Amino acid sequence: MTKRIFFLLPTAALLAPAFAPGAALAQQAPAAAPAAPSLGYADLADLVIASPLVVDATIRSASRIKGAEAAGLAPGKTRFYVEADVITLVRGASAIPARVGWVVDVSPDWRGRVPSLKKRRVLAFARPVAGQAGQIQLVEPGAQHDWSAALEQRVRAIASELAAPDAPPVITDIGNAFHVPGALPGEGETQIFLRTRDNRPAALSILRRPGEQPRWSIALSEIIDDSAPTPQRNTLLWYRLACALPATLPERSTASLSPDDATQAQADYGFVMEQLGPCRAAPPSAAVSAGVAPM
């Protein structure tokens, strides 16, 4: 294990988060519906991060909204105002009423018809509405998804990572890169410093040795550990990197390097991006674009 020191340059009755208002409600069967496509990790993480509230609830009523009140509705969508009985608060620091309402835009069902929402159990990704205790607002017009145990588990896992004291920081940019060639041909190490929203240190390290596969690691402290495991896919640290880093190393990051060292730093950065893989699967016939995003 090689360790070195580096310095980074410059939310009626209230419902508590874990309380369910009765077994009968929790056991109420949701309306039958075909399984929806699974949300990818990055799309789900986007939703959880944007949502101070994630509510597990059964829809009690759904009223279709038409005319001027449906202004801005996307083609093919239908807007509803729903009222729902809360089962539990999956994410949220404050208590909310046992019944809440929100507006949602929904797509046609598998038959191309307006879907039936009544009695459907859903997860609503939302924020509170100031001064209206019984109202919440979805973070996106369609940020309501059919509940499943698996989806709830995934949401809880992401929320838990976000709340951890050592949660990985938000990557906002790339700083300088450095490369040190080794004594043997093909040997060397590249360090690439990352900028973070809260100014915590972060750096990529790529180590090459003759006859061995390149190894890379991410340091989130002032100590770089070359033997540290790489981030596992579909974790918050992987998401922070794969969904924020640009496809190629900016030229400004290697401006102080010799041409050979700059070329190697670019290659080592490309190796890291290849190992991370795409943030989200590209739609058919769509080009993948990447760029630093403050998520």
Annotate the secondary structure layout:
Elements: E1 3-5, E2 14-15, H1 23-26, H2 41-50, E3 53-65, E4 78-91, E5 96-97, E6 99-106, E7 121-129, E8 132-138, E9 144-146, H3 149-163, E10 171-181, E11 188-196, E12 203-208, E13 215-219, E14 223-225, H4 236-242, H5 259-276
Antiparallel strand pairs: 1-14, 2-5, 3-4, 3-7, 4-6, 7-8, 7-9, 10-11, 11-12, 12-13
Helix pairs in contact: 2-3
Keywords: Signal
Signal peptide: 1-26
Offer a quick outline of the entry.
The protein is 18% helix and 32% strand. It is built from five helices and 14 strands. The longest helix has 18 residues, at 259-276.
Description:
This protein is of the alpha+beta class and 295 residues long. The chain folds into two domains: 14-29 and 39-163, OB fold (Dihydrolipoamide Acetyltransferase, E2P) (Beta Barrel), CATH 2.40.50.120; 168-276, no CATH class. Helix content is 18%, strand content 32%. The strands form four sheets. Strands 3, 4, 6, 7, 8 and 9 form a six-stranded antiparallel β-sheet that branches. A four-stranded antiparallel β-sheet has the order 10-11-12-13, with helices on one face. A two-stranded antiparallel sheet has the order 1-14. Strand 11 and strand 12 form a beta hairpin. The longest helix is centred in the C-terminal third of the chain and has 18 residues, at 259-276. The chain is elongated and about 70 Å long. The model is unreliable at 1-36 and 284-295 (pLDDT under 50). Residues 1-26 form the signal peptide. Keywords: Signal.
